[in-house]
Amino acid sequence: MIVIGFIGFAIKQSFGDPIREITGVSVSVEERNKLREELGLNDPFLVQFSRFIKGAMHGDIGRSFFYKKSALKVILSKAPATLELVFCSALIIVLFSIPLGIYSAINPRSIFSRIIMGGSTLGVSIPVFLTAILMIYIFSVELHWLPSYGRGETINLGGWRTGLLTLDGLKHLIMPSIALSSIMLPLFIRLIRSEMMEVLQNDYIKYAWAKGLAPRRVFIVHAFKNTLLPVITVGGVQLGTMIAFTILTETVFQWQGMGFMFIEAVERGDAPLMVAYLVVVGLIFVIVNTLVDVIYGLVNPQVRITGRK
Amino acid sequence: MQHLLEVKDLSVEFALRTGALRAVRNVSFTLNKGERLGLVGESGAGKSVTGFSIIKLISQPGYISGGSILFEGKDLAKMSSEGIRNIRGNRISMIFQDPMMTLNPVLTIGTQMTETVLAHMDVSYKEAEKIALEKLKKVYIPSPRKRLAQYPHEFSGGMRQRIVIAISLLTEPSLIIADEPTTALDVTIQAEIMDLLLELCQTDDMGLILITHDLAVVSEVTERIAVMYAGSIVETGLTSEVTMNPAHPYTKGLIAALPQSGGAGDRLTQIPGAMPSLINMPSGCPFHSRCTICTDICKVEVPQLEANKSGTLVACHHADK
After folding, report:
1. Domain presence at residue B80
2. Nearest Cβ partner of B106 from A213, A217, A299?
3. CATH assignment of the domain containing B35
C-alpha cells in the first residue's frame, strides 16, 4: 500500500500545476504564489509526501478539482456501480467456467469439449471493447432487447445505490457483465480444464476408481477439490485485474462506475482523483488477496495445519 | 472345486499411434480361495497391467483384447462398467504402490474410508464409521478415533500404507491385489507391512495377488508364483519349488541376481541385455537374445507352457521335461 501511495503521489506531483486548475485565468501572479505557499506546494517532496500519507491514513487522499469534493467521497459514490458489475461478472465466470471446465476435462475428445475449447480461444483473442460494441450493435441497435448504456433505475440502500433490485437495473447489467467476463471466462475454463486433467492423472484418482466409487463422487469430491487450489490462487489475482478491466467496459457502456470516472479524471487532468482511484484499487487488490489466502487455507488442509501451529 | 479367480488367455493391448502394443500376451492363471500368488518380473514385464486388468482399471488407451477373467463365476472381462464398480473395492480390493500418492491429500482418512463402505453397503454413516474404526484397529493404528479426522499428510509412509490396507479390508473382500505394496517404503517398514498383509490374509482366508519384483518377499508370503517376461508367463508353480529349482533360464537369472545368493565381496550377477521392446518383439522365444542356452529353435518357435517333472509349468525349449 505504501508503494502504491508513493507512486500515486509521484504522479500527482508531476501532473500539471494544481494552482492553474484551481484559480483560472483572472488571478494575478502574486495571489497565485501566496496560495501556493498556503497550500504547502513549495515544500520539499518528502515533506509533502509524508503529509499525503498522514492524510491518507485519515481517509483524506485529496480534493477533486472538478467535483470540488473529497476525492475519496467521489470514488465511494461511484464504487457500488463498479463492484456490482464485477460481482455479476464473477458470478457468470463461476457459474459457467466450473461445469464447462469439468466437462471438457472429463471428456477431452467429445465434440462439445472441442467447441468449448475453440470458442474459448476466440473469446480470449477478442478484446473487451470489441465484444462490447458488437453486443450493443446486435442486442440494442438491431434487436432492441437490451439497453445500451447507463445503469438504469437504481435504489438507494443506505448510501449504496444498487441496480440489482430493479428489473430495469438488472437489464442494464446484463451486457456489461457479459462483456467484462468475456476475457476471464475462457481463461478460467481453460485453467480448470488443464488443472483437472492433471489431477485426473494422479494415483489417488485411480485408487478412487479402484474403491468402486460412483463417477460423480470421483470427479466432484476427489478430483475437483484438488483442482480448486490453483484455481483459487489465480482467481484472486484475476479478480483484481477485472476491476482494472472495468475501465474499458464502463467506458463503452457509459457505466457510472470508478473506471469511467477514472477516464474522465484523466481527460480533465484531475490528479487527486486519479491518485485516489489508484489507492482505492490498490486497497481492493490487497483485500482480495488476503481473502484468497484465507479461502485457500480452508480448502487445503496442509496450509490449515501449519497455520494452527 | 471352483476357483476364486480364473484368468484365461488374457491379452491386453494399448492402442498407440504406431499400432497396437500387446502388453499382456495370453496370460492364464488360477487362484483358489485364500490362496496367495506372487506375480514377479522386471519393470515393463506386464505384471501391473495384468493386475489392473482384473478389475478393468487399465489406463487409457489400454483395453482387454482377449481372454476371460472368471471371478466367483462371473466373467469380469465382459461385465458392464456398472457391474465392475460393484466388484471393485467390494469383492476385490487393490493396494497401490505408493501410499503417499494413493490417498487424496484434501480429504480426511475418515471420509476416504467411509465413502468406500457407503458405496458398497447399505449402512448408515454411523455404522460405516464403526466399520472403519474396527479395521483401523485391525491394522494396529493407535487411537483410531482421533485418526479418522486427520489428513493423509499427518501420517508417516508406513502408517499410510496400513490405512490403505485397512481401506482394502472394509468390505471384507475375497481377493486383494497388491501392486508392489512395499516398494515405496523403508526396508524396516517393508517387513512390517508384509507380515501384516500375510497375517490378515490368513485370518480372513482372503486371496492375494502380490505384484512385485522382490523375490525374497514373494518366497516369504506366497504359496504359488508366476514369473512374467515381456507380457507372458514364462514359469509358474509352487513358490518353494520355483525358487529352489528354477527351470526357466530367466527365473534362474533372476534368482542368481539376488545379492544374498553370492558370497560376501563377490560381484553381483546380472542378466545381460535388456527386455525387448513390446512394439518390436523378436521372433521365437522373447528371451532368446539374452539367454545363455539359446539354440536355433529358440529363434524361430515360441515355447509354450509345459509341465516338468516337479509340476511346474515352464515355457522353454530346453527345460528338463
Report:
1. yes
2. A299
3. 3.40.50.300
Asked if residue B143 belongs to a domain, the reply is: no
Q: Is the peptide bond before B61 cis (omega within 30 degrees of 0)?
A: yes
ipTM of the complex: 0.84
CATH number for domain A71-308, candidates 3.40.109.10, 3.40.190.10, 3.90.180.10, 1.10.3720.10: 1.10.3720.10
Biggest CA pair distance of chain B: 67
Residues of A in contact with B107 (CB under 8 A): 221-222, 225
pLDDT, one tens digit per residue, over A134-192 is: 888 888 777 777 776 766 666 666 656 666 666 777 778 888 888 888 888 888 898 99
User: Which band of pLDDT confidence, cut at 50, 70 and 90, is reported for residue B23?
Assistant: confident
In chain A, % of residues over pLDDT 90: 1
Number of domains in chain B: 1
Beta carbons of B119 and A214 less than 8 Å apart: yes
Q: Which pLDDT belongs to residue B15?
A: 87
- Report the predicted TM-score, pTM, of the whole model to 2 decimal places: 0.77
Rounded CA gap, B37 and B60, in Å?
27
Q: Hey, of A204, A228, A298, which one would you mutate to test binding to chain B, going by the most B CBs within 10 A of its CB?
A: A204
In chain B, residues with a C-beta closer than 8 Å to the C-beta of A214 are 85, 119
Distance in angstroms (rounded) separating the CA atoms of residues B164 and B167: 5
Average pLDDT of every residue of chain A:
77
Instruction: Return the number of CB contacts < 8 Å for A and B.
Output: 78
List, in sequence order, every residue forming a beta bridge with A4; answer none if it has no partner. Answer: none
CB contact under 8 A, B101 and A202: yes
**Portion 108-137 of B in contact with A at CB < 8 A:** 108, 115-116, 119-120
Positions of E strands within A106-232 = 155-157, 160-162
Class of residue B316 by CB neighbours under 10 A (exposed 0-12, middle 13-18, buried 19+): buried
